[in-house]
Design a protein that fits this description.
The chain is of the alpha/beta class and about 575 residues long. Helix content is about 55%, strand content about 15%. Strands 2-1-4-5-6-7 form a 6-stranded antiparallel beta sheet, with helices on one face. Strands 8-12-13-3-14-15 form a 6-stranded mixed beta sheet, with helices on both faces. Strands 9-10-11 form a 3-stranded antiparallel beta sheet. The longest helix has about 70 residues, at about 330-395.
């Protein structure tokens, strides 16, 4: 609910403060006093178009600041955007400005916010119906939303269930489509992996095998040289056991000569005794090495067939490494590739099962979407009949006795996020006239009354905290004006209602009455918007009735209007 609004530099308004309260507030004033600028200001405050042409000539900018009482949900949205609230988290200050150059800024709770946040908040806080603000309900999507709100809890529950199933169906359908579109690529990838794994399996490499084969090939390729070297080393260490030479000078023999020489005198010198022991150890060690050389020579196999087999195996492993070994270039990297390829192949082959499962789920969800959409259509059709009857009855009382309103439910080509229905509110201005969309079937003044009738009907279903109406009484008078006042008062029982009016019959129903007055220079100042007491209301209504605020006849008529309105307000809804 709006508590206070300050407007500066907007149109003819230099500086004005509106003190608002709950219930029905009427805003009146002479033609050109700036009443409509108040509606423009509220539209700007709640994210409307920032038109620099509205900035008062000579002013740097136009600005609107409003203080509102808000719900916990709205407070949470503001706090998430970084704004702060006053008075225990229930009072919010919004402000909007537009410079003469067209730059626009918005603030919520003292912090700069995107204008879009004001628009989001407006959906929960206010419905502005000025001559330029009635376009929202003219959009088919908004009309469907409005009918759904009117439909009540049963339709809301059905819509929620439908949207849940629809969103799941869309997700499954998108996943299925993505899998099917990539099916050819997946099949080609799977075939490539199968061929690669078959090639690896045919060779059956073993980790470390490439290193071992390299060493074996090196040994087999140089077998003759290795055997000659081992034989020569053996003879040098131990001599040739089949040689008849008696003067052999192998290492072991020489170590024996040296050892026996030292053994003969070891008892005379401890140092020589130690050296004799070390020579003995050296002799044993050399003998062991010589023995191993003999065994090596006997075991060395200079087998050309084995060498060819090793070379062939290494060539096969080399082909695998070049194809699948990546940067590492060894058998281990081939085995790593095979491991990941097997996992990926299982995943690709599993996609076929996944496609089948998704296809079955998609078909089931499609059928459920169709069923739930049909239920939505049924509920909307019933709601549309009730809605049309109630609004048409309201229009009859609002000086449109021959008008009839219908909510036409038409089928979409395919179900969408909100069902399979398009909703269009149509108005037949008189009997025999074809029902036309609201923007074609009603004039500006009639459209305001249609909006009032719709809002009155909606008030019991899903009211917003604040309604603002401008020109809702255009083109009417007399009894019809009284009915407009009565319905605005009825709407004010559940919401704050602010109405710019030129009809005394409407203003008389207000709980609070503000009047906009211009100063001599044609501007509206802070003192130019005044709350009227009972006596001042009588004079203002008298002025509105006959142009003479001090006329006794006019004042008597004004007092009568106020009495009738007060009596009507006391009647039960």
């Amino acid at each position: 609910m709006l508590e206070e609004v300050r407007i500066t530099g907007l149109g003819v308004i230099d500086d004005a403060v509106l003190e608002l309260s709950a219930g029905f507030t009427a805003l009146t004033g002479e033609t050109g006093a700036g009443k409509t600028m108040v509606v423009t200001a509220l539209g700007l405050l709640f994210g409307g178009r920032a038109d620099p042409a509205r900035v008062r000539p000579g002013a740097a900018r136009a600005a609107v600041e409003g203080r509102l009482l808000v719900s916990a949900d709205v407070a949470r949205e503001v706090e998430e955007a970084g704004g702060d609230l006053d008075d225990n988290g229930s009072s919010l200050v919004l402000s909007r400005s537009v410079s003469a150059e067209g730059r626009s800024r918005a603030f919520a709770g003292g912090h700069s916010v995107p204008v879009s946040l004001l628009q989001v908040l407006a959906d929960d806080l206010v419905a502005v119906h000025g001559q330029s603000d009635q376009q929202q309900l003219l959009k088919p999507g908004r009309q469907r939303d409005a009918l759904d709100r009117f439909g009540g809890p049963e339709l809301a529950t059905a819509l929620s269930g439908y949207r849940r199933v629809y969103n799941r169906h869309r997700t499954v359908r998108d996943d299925l489509e993505a899998l099917r579109q990539a099916e050819r690529e997946r099949a080609a990838e799977a075939e490539t992996l199968r061929l690669g794994l078959a090639e690896v399996e045919a060779v059956s490499p073993v980790a470390g095998e490439d290193t071992a084969l390299l060493a074996e090939e090196e040994k087999l390729a140089n077998a003759d040289a290795l055997q000659a070297a081992a034989t020569t080393a053996h003879e040098a260490l131990l001599g040739d056991p089949v040689s008849a030479s008696v003067d052999a000078t192998d290492v072991v023999t020489l170590l024996g000569v040296a050892g026996r020489a030292l053994e003969a005198v070891r008892s005379h010198d401890a140092l020589l005794a130690g050296l004799a022991d070390r020579l003995s150890e050296a002799s044993y060690l050399i003998s062991d090495v010589a023995g191993e050389l003999a065994s090596y020579t006997e075991a060395l196999d200079a087998d050309p067939a084995r060498l060819a087999a090793v070379q062939e195996r290494r060539a096969a492993l080399g082909r695998l490494v070049r194809a699948y070994g990546a940067a590492a270039g060894d058998v281990a990297s081939v085995l790593d590739w095979a491991k990941h390829a097997s996992s990926r192949l299982a995943e690709l082959e599993g996609d076929n099962d996944k496609i089948a499962a998704l296809a079955a789920e998609e078909a089931s969800l499609q059928a459920e979407v169709t069923t739930l959409a049909a239920r939505l259509t049924q509920l909307r059709t019933a709601a549309a009949k009730r809605f049309a009857a109630e609004v048409t009855a309201e229009l009859t009382a609002l000086a449109m006795p021959h008008a009839s309103l219908t909510a036409v439910i038409s089928e979409l080509d395919a179900p969408g996020p909100y069902g399979a229905d398009d909703v269009e509110i149509r108005l037949a201005a008189h009997p025999g006239a074809p029902p036309l969309p609201l923007n074609k079937g009603a004039s500006g003044g009639e459209l305001s009354r249609v909006m009032l009738a719709i809002e009155v009907v909606f008030a019991g279903a899903d009211p917003v905290p604040t309604f603002v109406f401008d020109e809702v009484d255009a083109g009417v008078g007399g009894k019809a004006a009284v009915e407009i006042g009565r319905r605005l008062a009825r709407l004010a029982r559940s919401s704050q209602v602010i109405v710019v009016t030129h009809l005394p019959q409407v203003a008389a129903f207000a709980d609070n009455h503000l009047v906009v007055q211009k100063s001599d220079d044609g501007l509206v100042t802070a003192s130019g918007v005044m709350r009227l007491d009972q006596g001042a209301r009588v004079r203002e209504l008298s002025r509105m009735l006959g142009g003479l605020e001090d006329s006794e006849h006019g004042q008597a008529h004004a007092e009568e209007l106020l009495a009738v309105a007060a009596q009507e307000r006391r009647k039960p809804a």
